[in-house]
Every structure is written in structure tokens, then in C-alpha cells.
Design goal:
three-stranded parallel sheet, two-stranded parallel sheet
Amino acid sequence: MVHLARKVPTLTHVSNAPFLPTGASTNLRVLDSGSAAREVALLLGLAIQDRLPVPGDPPVVVVVADKSEVDALAEVEERSWIGCTVAWQLPEAALGRLYELGVAVFVGLPTIEQIVHATEYPLDPNEVSVARAVASRLATIESLLGDG
């Protein structure tokens, strides 16, 4: 009878990188929409993608730092290429509209794990409906506070 020795791996390097499913981090890309997107990509250690995704490409992280960028995204009907959005130093007045887009929104810098979850498990229609209701209420509150 032959006994195969079980080789026990030796830990030679400790990484600070988060544990991710195989290939998850290699598929994550930040759409290059300007300096804010490049800054977020650098902070997260993600690659930059300099073109819009084509059908079959994995969804991308979209960094939004200006109200005009929110307006541009609102005009896009097909948003399946958006894995999630990161509101990076975005004025609060534009946040409500960003929530109405029906995609995951992170205010500030998310973790890699949060981005992976958002891109692998998109919002369902019920969550989108709730997000829109919350955004509508926030807009109402902001307008009331602004009038007073």
C-alpha cells in the first residue's frame, strides 16, 4: 500500500489584500471618467477601463464626482454595464438623483468586498423602488429645509 504524503503549504508571504473569490478582483474595472475615477481606482487597487463596456464585458464601477455626471447617467436607458456607482465628493444635492438610477450607490470609498457584492448581485426591482422612494423623500426634505 502506497501512502501519499500530504504536502502542507508553507506561508511565506502575508498579503493585506482582501479575500476575494477567484477572479473577482481581476474582473473589476473603474470606468475612466476623469481624475476622481483614477483616484478611486488607485485607492482600491483596481484597473482603469478607458472605454464603455460592450455586451459580454463585466460591469464596471462608475465614479461620479459632479452633478453633470449624474445627469449624463440619468439619460442612459440601458444601465446593465454599471456594476455600481461611487459618489466621490459629490454635492449632496445630486445624491438623490443618483439613487434614482436603480444601481448600487456608495457614498465615499467602499471596500472591494462591497463592490464585488454589488456587481455580482445587482439590486432587485423592489430594492430599486425603495431607493427611489427614499431619494424622493430626501429631495422633499432638502427642498423644505432650503425654503425655511
